[in-house]
Amino acid sequence: MTVKHTILLVEDNPADVLLMKRAFRKEDLSHVSLQVVEDGDAAVLYLSGEGEYCDRERYPLPALILLDLKLPRRSGHEVLAWLRQQPQLKRLPVIILTSSKETIDVNQAYDLGVNSYLVKPPGFGALGEMLKTINLYWLLNNEQPEVA
Fold first, then answer.
1. Running along the chain, 148 residues long, what does each successive block of 10 average in pLDDT?
2. Contact of 9 with 66, CB cutoff 8 Å
3. 4-aspartylphosphate: which positions carry it (predicted)?
């Protein structure tokens, strides 16, 4: 199957990145290209197509963003606020994927326009199930918005 969708994972924890990559392989999500950036500033550069991310062939705009909250340089909330202010990018679907269940974090994310808020599951099997659900809903069944 050819790659049809790109997911941008914004995650600073190398162990979580490794688990996500393993879960994508295990669940055979080969039609998804997973791009990873490790901090909020890199996410903004990627989405802007600036710096090392200027080549849209190598770094295509994502169909979906999985965004951690606790990031170096610029928090997930700050990335989300920036994204929603960008006329050509503001429609990109964003899922917060974090370990925080704090009501203040959840409410702030929705106030800033997040599409969904998920708490990282406790085990590898649960992560795989979550990714299958994300794939089915957000990439296969959901109508994607037009972005520049």
1. 81 94 86 94 97 95 96 96 97 96 97 97 90 90 86
2. yes
3. 68
Q: Which are the contacts of 145, defined by CB distance < 8 A and separation ≥ 6?
A: 91, 92, 93
**CATH number for the domain running over 5-141:** 3.40.50.2300
* Cα–Cα–Cα angle for 56, 60, 62, rounded to 5 degrees: 155
Pairing of strands 32-37, 5-10: parallel
Task: Name the amino acid, one letter, at 122.
Answer: P
Task: Compute the distance between CA of residue 56 and CA of residue 89 in angstroms, rounded to an integer.
Answer: 14
Q: Report the Cα 134 to chain-centroid distance in Å.
A: 11
What is each CA distance from 86 to 21, 79, 82, 83, in whole angstroms?
A: 29, 11, 7, 5
**Can you tell me the distance from the alpha carbon of 80 to that of 109, in angstroms, rounded to the nearest whole number?**
8
Q: Is the pTM of this model over 0.85?
A: yes
